[in-house]
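Lab manual, section 2.4: Encoding a predicted structure.

Procedure: take the sequence of the chain (350 residues), apply the prediction step described in section 2.3, and record the output as structure tokens. A sample record is shown.
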Amino acid sequence: MAILVTGGAGFIGSNYIINFLEDTQETVINLDLLTYAGNPENLSSIEDSKNYQFFHGDIGDRNLVNKILKTYEPRAIINFAAESHVDRSIHEPSGFIQTNIVGTFNLLECTREYFSHLRENGRPKFRFLHVSTDEVFGSASPSGPAFNEKTRYKPNSPYSASKASSDFLVRAYNRTYELPTIITNCSNNYGPYQFPEKFIPLTILRAIKGEEIPIYGDGQQIRDWLYVTDHCDALNRVLKNGLPGDVYNIGGLNQITNLQLAEDICEILDEIRPSNQSYKSQINFTKDRPGHDRRYAIDCDKINKELGWMPYESFESGIRKTVIWYLENQEWTDNIIGGAYREWIKKNYS
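Recorded output:
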């Protein structure tokens, strides 16, 4: 038995593979193009496992994808492969269109061909699990209801628009070709191995380096934060018991403003790595992001009632674990943060 994970060297994908292999003897095939946020070092703990195979390549390479499918005959495909940073999509949208829309289309075409030739006993159990985002729903009103599975899509950035397009493609392949697809829409993830351009690791690393901690606008944007291993557990529940053609929202039940989050991180750092003054003094407000969504919030009643999933980590325990991980793994971040990264930070936050 085997599963194919696309984008498995990224933040969520690598955490998923590591957690998956802790509980199974199945083979995991990881297909990743290793763009700037894909890091094989994330998977160093399992790279020598006989149950792990890595392929360096693009989900848009149909010859490669077809070869992998034919060779390993996976019982499931979990698609994490995506460009995922809103700020980068504002500056350079073309890569998001190519990977998130065209890439997903190519992967679906290969999967459709593969599924049509599966042996009869393999077809009922096969799943194509597409991992998406709550950002496809746009911005929730400050006091309005959280996003549920029937919330209308209203994407506001090139990133979220490209993910919305990929979701629609996955849905269409289920309805038109009866491909057993499932879509999940998750809230903001955090935890180990997250690329340092994202808000939480960016805040931690700039704080301990004595640099300004950039906060967009007034810092009152609200996000729902989901610890990455809780997300991985939810995906396994969906893969095992989710219904083909269905959608499941996965949230952390932790809504907090960006400013409060930065201050919480600073308070943890003040406690475990005290400096001459509070790290909060490094917080600096910058010009707001164009089209910045004000609030994201996930209603995950459906996955709780139908699949019995709820997040295990509280925000307090998860954020403390995350801060400690980055403090204890600075070699990992040092290997990532090079000249190109520094130029990106300067370009985006200056």
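Check your result against the sample. The chain is about 45% helix and 15% strand.
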